[in-house]
Amino acid sequence: MTSAKRLAAEKAIEYVEAGSIIGVGTGSTVAHFIEALGRMRDRIKGAVSSSEQSSELLRSAGIEIHDLNATGPLALYVDGADECDPHKRLIKGGGGALTREKIIAEASARFVCIVDPSKQVDVLGRFPLPVEVIPMARSLVAREILAMTRAQPVWRQDANERGVVTDNGNLILDIHGMSITDPVALESALNQIPGVVAVGLFARRPADIVIVGGEPPQIL
Ligand code: 5RP
């Protein structure tokens, strides 16, 4: 049986315009999208990548990678999510690529989010909210998050208990135990803490279209 992630990713190909440069997110759902994009690589100009992981997949698929500074605004950004609410607001950053993902989403006219049905929630927050922080500010930001939200920030570590380092050389705090009733306000408040690089809430700039994988895929 074809997975819901793959079904969502393959549907997203319909939004790709010939001759364009596509913004590409990160994660297992996006990996299916890159695979499908590879099959039409001769009909696109290339991609702007949100992570080293996606860049590797794009290169293996024979897709040229462009620098966002050189491309200017993009017509389309395709990415997955960890949670999606009915207003197409998202939690992202489970794969640690939230900052570059947010930059490309902001630079794109249309953000198509591809998810499987398990990502749909009424209220964001069951998935721990990732926040990318400058290393020297880790403890400061954690204390301020705790004071502000009363929820628990946890330093993301790998299996060897070493801090996970992002592609930008920073660390991640995952905020556990929140029910985010006003995502726009929380995104803006967390962004004010010195040392925060990016917050994995995509509420001020939500997705424009959400494709939920299934047979047939659902377009929201
Ligand atoms: C990476 C992300 C991913 O889009 C998110 O974690 C979903 O991943 P997957 O498609 O593997 O479920 O935000 O930073």
Automatic annotation (TrEMBL):
Q: Does the keyword Isomerase apply?
A: yes
- Record GO cellular component, one term: cytosol
What catalytic reaction does the record list? Answer: aldehydo-D-ribose 5-phosphate = D-ribulose 5-phosphate
A biological process (GO) of this protein is: pentose-phosphate shunt, non-oxidative branch
The protein's assembly and partners: Homodimer.
The entry's family comment says:
Belongs to the ribose 5-phosphate isomerase family.
Q: What exactly does this protein do?
A: Catalyzes the reversible conversion of ribose-5-phosphate to ribulose 5-phosphate.
Its protein name is: Ribose-5-phosphate isomerase A
